[in-house]
Design goal:
mainly alpha, 2 helices
């Protein structure tokens, strides 16, 4: 059981790590591209091309942010459901143990 729950708990974390890694690599690549364009050809680059590149950069960042928010929301829903199921089953088990032991337990004392 521990292996299964550990695997279920690690899978969302691995997905977030992989998505974050891809996002950072993509952002670094685009940052490098923009930096290279600015360094080597700012004087030769028409303003329209620079503005187009900037708008592409902003659009891709917006798409990336949207995707990251979607993945984060989905993982949050999955982990909340998993935690609820685990805690609910533990709660039910503890209620059963408490009810079973109620016969042998002393009644609560009336004040001190």
């Amino acid at each position: 059981m521990k292996d299964k729950t550990g695997e279920l708990a690690e899978r969302p974390i691995k997905m977030v790590d992989a998505t974050a890694t891809r996002a950072l690599e993509s952002m670094e690549e685009k940052k490098t591209q923009v930096g290279n364009l600015l360094q080597f050809s700012l004087n030769m680059l028409p303003i329209n091309s620079f503005m187009q590149l900037k708008s592409q950069w902003e659009a891709s960042n917006q798409q990336l942010q949207s995707r990251m928010n979607d993945v984060t929301g989905e993982l949050r829903k999955r982990s909340d459901g998993f935690q609820y199921q685990c805690l609910e089953s533990i709660h039910n088990l503890m209620d059963y143990v408490e009810d079973s032991l109620e016969v042998v337990l002393l009644p609560p004392s009336q004040g001190e």
